[in-house]
Amino acid sequence: MAVNPIKSKLKEGKCVYGSWIRIPSPIIVEALGNVGFDFLHVDMEHSSIDLQMLDYLVLAGYRYNIPLAVRTATQNPADLYRIMDIGYSSFVLPRIESAEQCAHLLKGARYTPAGTRGLGGAVRANGWGEMPLEQHLTEAEDDTLMIIQIESEEGLKNLDAILDVPGIDVVYIGPLDLSQALGYPGQIDHPVVADTIASLIKTIRAKGIAVGIHAATTLQAQAWAEAGIQYFTVALDVSLLQSAGRTVVGQLKNKQ
């Protein structure tokens, strides 16, 4: 297993682009994993995707060598290493609001002495026990990518302390929840929201950590890239399907 390719690209200063998976089907991972995205986010927080489905999705990711990051729905470190045993190495941790909470979760994704991840014996992550233990421990550390979400008033207040927690690779801004926390729900372009995002970019980058965000459009992603953001999600499987459907229907009906 090589060093996580997303980690390598971010360290080189490159931008990376992905999308969200909410439809519980490995076919979606295969379809979107074959179009050129750098990664895909599997969303357990806002979908019906469960642990059994994760087992199928990771195999679909292997098929096209597309890195998958799982957004969890719980605040339990044991859930992280259970998912890692299945074969995932990247996580999006939502609703990070304190340094203590962040450290507690991040430790669940790393083996001792850096963390509390349990050794599970023969699991997919170590080739069902065929990989030597020392190799597995080393590769697990190299491959792990931890993305935390700052999207609340509490998270903003404790940002400096949170950023000092070791093991954070990307701070991912949730613009919709952030706009709501600031009192302007859904108004991503409101000056207060825009200024807060600009301030977050400056503060996070000063700590040597990459900044991520969800962009509603490709033009928005381009503008944020110029502002210093490197890690982007754009659209999600449902919206991409709807958009393609609307285009086809519009073209058909406009010819009648």
Automatic annotation (TrEMBL):
Q: Does the keyword Lyase apply?
A: yes
Matching Gene3D superfamilies, A to Z? Phosphoenolpyruvate-binding domains (3.20.20.60)
Every copy of the HpcH/HpaI aldolase/citrate lyase domain together lies at: 19-242
Look up the signal peptide feature and give its range: none
Which UniProt keyword terms apply here? Lyase, Metal-binding
Q: Which family does it belong to?
A: Belongs to the HpcH/HpaI aldolase family.
Q: What is this protein called?
A: Aldolase
Q: Which organism is it from?
A: Brevibacillus reuszeri
